[in-house]
Write a structure and sequence with these properties.
The protein has 418 residues and is an alpha/beta fold. It has two domains: 203 residues, Enolpyruvate transferase domain (UDP-n-acetylglucosamine1-carboxyvinyl-transferase, Chain); 207 residues, Enolpyruvate transferase domain (UDP-n-acetylglucosamine1-carboxyvinyl-transferase, Chain), CATH 3.65.10.10. The chain is built from 14 helices and 24 strands. The strands form six sheets. The protein has a four-stranded mixed β-sheet with strand order 22-23-1-24. Strands 2-15-17-16 form a four-stranded mixed β-sheet, covered by helices on one side. Strands 4-5-3-14 form a four-stranded mixed β-sheet. Helix 6 packs parallel to helix 7 and helix 11 runs parallel beside helix 12. The longest helix has 13 residues. The chain is elongated. It starts with a strand and ends with a strand. 54% of the residues are buried. Bound molecules: ligand EPZ. Ligand EPZ binds next to helix 1, helix 5, helix 6 and helix 12.
Length: 418
């Protein structure tokens, strides 16, 4: 199992390019199942979760050609409409093949994801929506089996709570349903909009993506397309915080600054100098006195839950008390006790983490528990006095492409130990 060895204290300086969004690429790959024609996707990040999804699609019947960040998927026919437990347990986003499979071939057998470090991660809302589109679904042996022999038919689906992949899954199911589907209380994330853009290029008729009501007119057939994935706003946000926490001077290039308004606003309130030289670049000038600023995670355009752990690391260095409230997942403070072992003063009270600062962090042996918690530990290690060893960095490899190379290039003392 790989580890990171990090010696803190270096102020990061220079430019970091942003990769394509993992959370836009995953549904885009699944969307390729909707057509027998080739779909070419560009700016696909080379991270573990993408490789897992590619393997799943090949098992289902896709031919995948990967050249750098371009993936061409061709699924002349669905050979095995299944997402087995072995794959789903490593990546719950595998449930994104559910909608496309039922829409394309009238059936799907997908393992229930089971929980993960940050919460129960149910997919009941995906299932409920598919039933409303006419699929018959039953559950046995840890799998759900969906069937729609006569195809799906449009319906009004109201999500009890906002779900990003639930919205994406149902949008992909609805594009081939007979008639109109309306998704209410839909997720508004940029990744949802990006999937809708790809589906539209493939021939779908979709209105309202990015708002909480999405209307889809079903079509007979979906065609091939070529599409470039949006930049990864969570990767870009993570590096913005890296610049702030080390007191450096970093330009994050190739990002979509507009997707990071909530984070940028909080950083500026906290005393971090963030500017936007152009639409694709955000520059962070750290070094000023950091002030504690409260944050509550919310669905987009609110403060992203995927940046909560990284922001907590920053608040350990801020003057005052920061109240961090996590409203999306039930167990997303796993990083707090590891940060505390490095010297942070954090108290957890239900959905709230109270961070008192500033407290000097010192290097320690810590363990990564999930993707964004790992990023939080890397950020803390960059500012800690001495050496930190982070174990189980396979978590971070799920969503960040060669993060150690990107950070080392701007002055971080970080190396991967096999
Ligand atoms: C997506 O997960 C992202 N993953 C997550 O990013 C992100 O944290 C999350 O959205 C919230 O923004 C991908 O896009 C691949 P949800 P998703 O369905 O879709 C509950 C990362 O670090 N819920 O929006 O699984 C659920 O338990 C990952 O890149 C149900 O109850 O999240 C959660 O509490 C982590 N029933 C809340 O809704 C359902 O059927 C939001 O979950 C579905 C969800």
């Amino acid at each position: 199992m790989d580890k990171f060895v990090i010696t803190g204290g270096a102020a990061l300086r220079g430019e970091i390019p942003t990769n394509g969004s993992k959370n836009a690429a995953l549904p885009a790959l699944a969307a390729a199942l909707l057509t027998a024609e080739p779909v070419t996707l560009k700016r696909i990040p080379r991270v573990r979760d993408i490789r897992t999804m590619q393997r799943l699609l090949v098992d289902i019947g896709s031919q995948a050609e990967v050249e750098g960040e371009t993936v061409c998927l061709h699924t002349p026919q669905i050979v095995c409409p299944e997402a087995p437990y072995e794959l789903v347990k490593t990546m719950r986003a595998s449930s994104l093949v559910l909608g496309p499979l039922v829409a394309r071939c009238g059936r799907a057998r997908v393992s229930l994801p089971g929980g993960c470090a940050i919460g129960g991660r149910p997919i009941n809302l995906h299932i409920l929506g598919l039933e409303q589109l006419g699929a018959r679904i039953h559950q046995s042996h840890g799998y759900i089996e969906a069937e729609a022999r006569d195809g799906l038919r449009g319906a009004v689906v109201h999500f009890d709570r906002i779900t990003v992949t639930g919205t994406e899954d149902l949008m992909m199911a609805a594009v081939l349903a007979k008639g109109e589907t309306i998704l209410r209380n839909a997720a508004r994330e940029p990744e949802v909009v990006d999937v809708a853009d790809l589906l539209t290029k493939m021939g779908a008729q979709i209105e309202g993506a990015g708002t909480s009501t999405i209307r889809i007119q079903g079509v007979e057939k979906m065609g091939g397309a070529e599409h470039t994935i949006i930049p990864d706003r969570i990767e870009a946000g993570t590096f913005l915080i890296a610049g702030a926490i080390t007191g450096g001077d970093l330009a994050i290039t190739g990002c979509n600054a507009g997707h990071l308004d909530a984070l940028v606003s909080k950083l500026q309130q906290a005393g971090v100098d963030v500017t936007q030289p152009d639409g694709g670049t955000l520059r962070v000038l750290g070094g000023g006195k950091l002030r504690s600023v409260d944050v509550t995670t919310e669905e987009y355009p609110g403060f992203a839950t995927d940046l909560q752990a990284q922001y907590m690391a920053l608040m350990t260095q801020a003057e005052g008390i920061a109240m961090i409230t996590e409203t999306i997942f039930e167990n997303r403070f796993m990083h707090a006790q590891e940060l505390a072992r490095m010297g942070a003063n954090i108290r957890i009270d239900g959905k709230q983490a109270i961070v008192a600062g500033p407290h000097e962090l010192t290097g320690a042996g810590v363990i990564a528990s999930d993707l964004r918690a790992s990023a939080s530990l890397v950020l803390a290690a960059l500012v800690a006095r001495g050496e930190t060893v982070i174990d189980r960095v396979y978590h971070i490899d799920r969503g960040y492409e060669r993060i150690e190379a990107k950070l080392a290039r701007v002055g971080a003392k970080i190396r991967r130990v096999e």
